[in-house]
Amino acid sequence: MALILTVTCLFGSYVVTGWMPTFFVKQGLTVSKSLGFNAAIMSGYVAGPLLCMVIVDRIGRRTSIVMFGTLTAIFAGIYPFMKAPALVIAVGFVLVATVASFLTLGLGTTPEYFPTAFRFRGGGFAQTVGRIGLIFSPFVVLWLFNSAGVVAVILAVSGMYVAVTLLNSFAGVDTSREALEQIAPDDDGATHTAKSARSGSTK
């Protein structure tokens, strides 16, 4: 889970930030207009983490990951079909904001998938794998771009977010509002939270 989440966060962020000006030029915009559009849209990278500050602790990290993953998949899927400049900027801004929110949540939550004794090492390993994947990202994006254009790249990113969102929906672990001592597994593999729930049900 941690590896898939990290790879998706970094790959999605790279595609949106690194290739967006190229997409605009390919659609016929001048370089100067492309950079202007990109600057306006990239302000979503400020809005996304600010939105996380407001809502994540209220609705929980797992719910937030599923929500932002779903929104990113949707807006990434429709973005290539935007033609009007106002829609390009508006949809692009929302897309970048959701990508930034997902990146903040994903990288921040990754260490919590590992036991306390291995949290730093586990998080570091996941980050390493994610960044190795990031090294190969330009080759993957270039192949998709040359094969089927902008749509292929954006839909591939959208598909990754759909996959990781479904995975978190059915197999994710929500550590929100839980102390580390409560979610850390004992020697028999059961968490303190699960044991407390079982104890309460037997009373």
From TrEMBL:
Polar residues compositional bias, start-end: 193-203
Cellular localisation: Cell membrane
Keywords: Membrane, Transmembrane, Transmembrane helix
Main location: membrane
Segments crossing the lipid bilayer: 34-56, 63-81, 87-107, 128-145, 151-173
Region entry Disordered, spans: 184-203
Entries under InterPro entries matching the protein: MFS (IPR011701), MFS_dom (IPR020846), MFS_trans_sf (IPR036259)
GO MF term set: carboxylic acid transmembrane transporter activity
GO cellular component entries: plasma membrane
Pfam families membership: MFS_1
Ranges for domain Major facilitator superfamily (MFS) profile: 1-177
Membrane topology: Multi-pass membrane protein
PANTHER family: CARBOXYLIC ACID TRANSPORTER PROTEIN HOMOLOG
Record-given protein name: Major facilitator superfamily (MFS) profile domain-containing protein
Species in which this protein is naturally found: Amycolatopsis camponoti
